[in-house]
Sequence to fold (1336 residues):
Amino acid sequence: MNRLEEFDRRWEKKNLGLFHADPRYREPQPSYEPCLWKWKDMEEALKEASEIVSAEEAFRRTIAFRNPSLKRGATHTLLMSCQTVLPGEIAPAHRHTMTATRFVIKGGGAQTTIEGEPFPLERGDFVTTPSRTWHDHYNGSSEPIIWLDGADGPLIRLLEIGFSEPYGAKQQECTKPSGGSLYELAPARPSWVSPDPIQPPPYRYRWEDTEKVLKALGEKPGDPFDGLLLRFVNPLTGGPTLPTISCEIQMLRPKEVTKSHRHTSSAIYHVFSGKGFTVIGDQRYEWESGDTFALPLWRWHHHGSRSGEGAILFAMNDRPVMEKLGFYREEEHS
Amino acid sequence: MNRLEEFDRRWEKKNLGLFHADPRYREPQPSYEPCLWKWKDMEEALKEASEIVSAEEAFRRTIAFRNPSLKRGATHTLLMSCQTVLPGEIAPAHRHTMTATRFVIKGGGAQTTIEGEPFPLERGDFVTTPSRTWHDHYNGSSEPIIWLDGADGPLIRLLEIGFSEPYGAKQQECTKPSGGSLYELAPARPSWVSPDPIQPPPYRYRWEDTEKVLKALGEKPGDPFDGLLLRFVNPLTGGPTLPTISCEIQMLRPKEVTKSHRHTSSAIYHVFSGKGFTVIGDQRYEWESGDTFALPLWRWHHHGSRSGEGAILFAMNDRPVMEKLGFYREEEHS
Amino acid sequence: MNRLEEFDRRWEKKNLGLFHADPRYREPQPSYEPCLWKWKDMEEALKEASEIVSAEEAFRRTIAFRNPSLKRGATHTLLMSCQTVLPGEIAPAHRHTMTATRFVIKGGGAQTTIEGEPFPLERGDFVTTPSRTWHDHYNGSSEPIIWLDGADGPLIRLLEIGFSEPYGAKQQECTKPSGGSLYELAPARPSWVSPDPIQPPPYRYRWEDTEKVLKALGEKPGDPFDGLLLRFVNPLTGGPTLPTISCEIQMLRPKEVTKSHRHTSSAIYHVFSGKGFTVIGDQRYEWESGDTFALPLWRWHHHGSRSGEGAILFAMNDRPVMEKLGFYREEEHS
Amino acid sequence: MNRLEEFDRRWEKKNLGLFHADPRYREPQPSYEPCLWKWKDMEEALKEASEIVSAEEAFRRTIAFRNPSLKRGATHTLLMSCQTVLPGEIAPAHRHTMTATRFVIKGGGAQTTIEGEPFPLERGDFVTTPSRTWHDHYNGSSEPIIWLDGADGPLIRLLEIGFSEPYGAKQQECTKPSGGSLYELAPARPSWVSPDPIQPPPYRYRWEDTEKVLKALGEKPGDPFDGLLLRFVNPLTGGPTLPTISCEIQMLRPKEVTKSHRHTSSAIYHVFSGKGFTVIGDQRYEWESGDTFALPLWRWHHHGSRSGEGAILFAMNDRPVMEKLGFYREEEHS
Fold:
């Protein structure tokens, strides 16, 4: 024990200690590694869960992608899970600080009710549940529905600011017509609508609309690192999907291989359709429809599609956090 | 001539003179009066113009609503005209500082090309032509089309900042697909789109979309002064239609009569459908489908619908100018 | 009279007429010319006015720089005057839509009270009187004070939105300490201060502070077109001086000659100290301390200093109007 | 082990697991407790450190306030230390993602050089070192100087985005004059200054200026929860001190006792002068000049001064983070 360690030990009881500034060059070293989850595993787990979790526990039929390098979450700030709701089931109403998103990957005919407005859930639909909005889900169809639950839960944990509240009843009363916000938030906008300075309104981005955009723009060069990249923006202001999360659709055209870059945001990707690969650092991850993978921050990465029809990825990242706090940096691989 | 007048006369040759501050209470006194134009007059004038204006002069087949109290314009800042383009005709390409808008009131099957993108023009469609964007029009259908041309021409004159340029060819080359911007500016937005800090992109607000919004929200209480009021917003940011102009659709439900107010913005209204009246000051103006009227600033006014089916008005005002410069004020009639 | 003129004449009675679009190339052609006012004229006029305008009419002892090409104002949007207040006189309290500024050019020891706060007025001080703030002036010193009154009066006229109100008493009660806003708006800012989205607070920019900045930065290259250029910014947000007006101090170092440019904003310059010249179009204007001159929009111009000690200009322009409405353009002379 | 635990254990090897949503009411429960550090301890520790840390290790002569409930930091997002630099010593140049602040509590005559500009450091001065700006310190006086180092280090750790770089030489070359930014960022602002959208410029808030504001506003009612509260704002935009940190001066007038509230931001307070107490939850902390204490988020708290002359606190909090991400909430104690 040198004299500095000895100093620290002595002052520890007064809650004082030398500040260990390290003068050497350092870059972000994420505390976790990339991870790939195969759809066949998740599918089987969901089937089992459908059997062992009862209707009363329906809200627990959500299976998280666990990054084994982390205590919780798929990255240090983001989590992703698959939730399945069986025909007739209700996931009970509650709200929390945690911001959530739904992206439907199988089935349809269900709805999520947010702040009194029912939003239909069909395959490919993307629905936002902003922080502290009441929400419940109901599957009124005759087959199970499966969606991806994305959230900033790990960030909420790090920042220690999580509030959570049950609604008091199993379901909210629907006080607004289904699809109403699609009309209220259109470019011909009612006079009573005005944007909140921070929170976007709950919103449903219909797959039929997203698909039209992909088709209409399929020939465009797109982004050098991410293919044809669509961002789900706040429909009122054009800002990021949510204050802490950006969600995106990424289309890799047949045989498209992107350039490599790295950035201080982390991301989770889900393969909506097609086949391809992502190289992260010196590791290559082969993926196909239904697979999910996590990208740590500041790792070099690029994507490629394999199949004749290209591939479509759904992606969620924490870039808005990094940008707003002044921490966003990006580098192109030379 | 008193001593002050004599002072002024003496110093006039040096370009100096007493500043005449008037210490009394004053409110805005518009230099012009309300004006109502009947559709049957405009219709007949357009028919005559179609005969006497040749195809080569097609760009002149635009008939302006002239407010007799003003040298030009329908209000001190805004102008409105009706343009008709006959089958096969082209209105040649040019651009100018003046911001323009088109609202189709009769016919269809035509297109306006703006910055290389053709925008279809069908009845009820509203298309913006932001300041300094190249534009030309073409009627490829078999019947004449008539639209309202709205613009900030009088404001441009007052501010003396008008630039104007012919294109060099009769028509622009179409470098973008028809309807492309509808996809580029959707809430699932391509990564290459980013808003200009001031100018919105050219945009087409399809009547079929506007109508859906009106139908979906028809039961809402709406605005106390304007009925169910939809604002055409900048699709990228939610800001006003254009930097100097706000365009709106106003639906008065059957027998709806609004409250009276006044404001420092002026407006031009066109009756898209239905029948009703507007009271401006102590004068009542009865209007029906196709009529157009001008509202001076700071005049008390309210609207009412007559017909069983209510009425739909298209409105254009200069409120963004007044708001940005800090001059917007509004008062509710007690 | 050709067939189109005949058409117009016939339809005039219905308030309709052909829209005369001119397809040729056009640039802004200001309706007025540059103008230079010599200090010895203004000085003599002020002296005369001090004799013929009584204390009761003190608010009229303001002599405007009249641009002979315009009905009112020194440019189409801006006006400038010299106001003199004699020892013991009060210019009575009122408010108006018109935004005003004061720049003290002779004397001192007076004060302007704005919204209950007295602002001292010393030579070189610049004080803003935002739209619709109550204000009155008092000269408590033993010598006359002279300041430049700048305002957006002509713009207010063009937009027809002028309100004006007498206060009811000759002077406001001082409810705030002299110099209070200097402390309230400092970078260590009290929690109760929050910026208005459009209007800045009334503010005094002390000459002693401005002069320190000029001295500290005197060696910097500055702006290629305007020498060392300081802008008086909204102390709360860094935005323009006022919503419609930017005020600036421009220091031309000894023998500095700037590059030539033109822009869609117009300006009024006052020579605070030194000697020099400004070339506007092909005309050269020689100026010296106390002179004032007007620059129309879109005219090529450059400045030069003559004297060994350089020159300091106070300038006021309407650039914020042009920028906010999307009309600002600037070109460097090749 | 129930069936759900058994499920989890089985799927763990595939990195899948049930998402444990807890439907009960929850509020933030900070992972740490308040802590008070006495000045006499810190003073003694600094004296010892001055002896055992050599000039070559000068950058290590920084003693952190360690919250015993946390691995690092005084709150979960913020750290505070005391740094002492002896006469003639240099703390070598480097930069990092971590945002830092200096608040001088003893001595003076030193300087911190940031991005080539030397900033004098005198007692009470507050200087910001924004993220990724080069900085080094030098004590050119004849006595030790002590300042508080505040930083968002723990937040940087949580977000895992820390970059760090040595400069290559012990000190930066001074390329700007001392005090230059005070002039460049004044309300009469040079044309070349324009704000970065996120990062403020490095800035020195001189104690003599802060003190003048405190004196001028001493009679104002101030904030109900914090006394007379001054926020150090971004001098260019009026925004928060730094993207992740707000720093404040809080004056409690003699015998002033504030109301109690709680909020989702956490804070560290340092007693610059005076005596008083802070009640956090049901614990009362008595403090006097030189003491430091940490306030966890979402704890009820109020402050009171004791001494005849009142008290002045320097405070640092993470409110900008919570506000930007949409997580800020505040409640007044009923």
